[in-house]
């Protein structure tokens, strides 16, 4: 299991990145408003499965490099930390526009909703890059990888579920809040600041 210092950094960082409006969160909000929260849960199921697969693949792939080529891992820490800083800078510079999803094109069958959430999660290159950059440095190769991955994955699943449920149930009120002034921009800046701090911490740790 990761130590408490690691969790104290990981939990707030992933929470703010997760709650920031993106394709999955906007999709959850759009579906919640158009077909209801109950049907949106099927999309959330597919998205969670997709996120879990991306996270597991990222950790196991990089963990194998960590075990066999420790020098390469030192380089990956710097590259990953630099990439997180880069993401943080881009989030600060973001103009704060929400992704637009046409609810009229949404197929409300369960299988379709599940597949839509799953594809949205695994087909996002930024999601892959983020998981590869952020997750592996939180893994201690001197301890069993499985329990650590299980804890981090559990945090990710809970955070994603809470975030999507908030967007799905928030509906018009949340959409109105996000459309006002610089609310999205400030959310991006909070998440971006955390990303930059974690990037520096991972590179120097």
UniProtKB/TrEMBL annotation:
<feature type="transmembrane region" description="Helical">
    <location>
        <begin position="41"/>
        <end position="69"/>
    </location>
</feature>
<feature type="transmembrane region" description="Helical">
    <location>
        <begin position="75"/>
        <end position="92"/>
    </location>
</feature>
<dbReference type="InterPro" id="IPR001123">
    <property type="entry name" value="LeuE-type"/>
</dbReference>
<feature type="transmembrane region" description="Helical">
    <location>
        <begin position="113"/>
        <end position="139"/>
    </location>
</feature>
<keyword id="KW-0472">Membrane</keyword>
<feature type="transmembrane region" description="Helical">
    <location>
        <begin position="186"/>
        <end position="204"/>
    </location>
</feature>
<feature type="transmembrane region" description="Helical">
    <location>
        <begin position="6"/>
        <end position="29"/>
    </location>
</feature>
<protein>
    <submittedName>
        <fullName>LysE family translocator</fullName>
    </submittedName>
</protein>
<feature type="transmembrane region" description="Helical">
    <location>
        <begin position="145"/>
        <end position="166"/>
    </location>
</feature>
<dbReference type="Pfam" id="PF01810">
    <property type="entry name" value="LysE"/>
</dbReference>
<keyword id="KW-0812">Transmembrane</keyword>
<keyword id="KW-1133">Transmembrane helix</keyword>
<keyword id="KW-1003">Cell membrane</keyword>
């Amino acid at each position: 299991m990761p130590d408490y210092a690691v969790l104290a950094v990981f939990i707030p960082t992933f929470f703010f990145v997760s709650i920031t409006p993106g394709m999955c969160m906007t999709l959850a909000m759009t579906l919640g408003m158009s077909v209801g929260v109950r049907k949106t849960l099927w999309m959330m199921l597919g998205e969670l499965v997709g996120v879990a697969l991306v996270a597991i693949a990222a950790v196991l792939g990089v963990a194998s490099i960590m075990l066999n080529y420790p020098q390469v891992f030192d380089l990956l820490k710097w590259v990953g930390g630099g990439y997180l800083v880069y993401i943080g800078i881009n989030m600060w510079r973001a103009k704060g526009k929400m992704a637009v999803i046409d609810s009229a094109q949404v197929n409300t069958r369960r299988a379709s909703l599940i597949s839509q959430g799953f594809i949205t999660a695994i087909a996002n290159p930024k999601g892959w890059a983020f998981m590869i950059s952020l997750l592996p440095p939180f893994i201690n190769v001197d301890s069993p990888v499985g329990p650590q991955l299980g804890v981090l994955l559990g945090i990710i699943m809970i955070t994603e579920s809470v975030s999507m449920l908030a967007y799905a149930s928030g509906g018009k009120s949340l959409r109105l809040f996000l459309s006002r002034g610089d609310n999205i921009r400030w959310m991006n800046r909070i998440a971006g600041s955390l990303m930059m701090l974690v990037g520096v911490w991972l590179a120097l740790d």
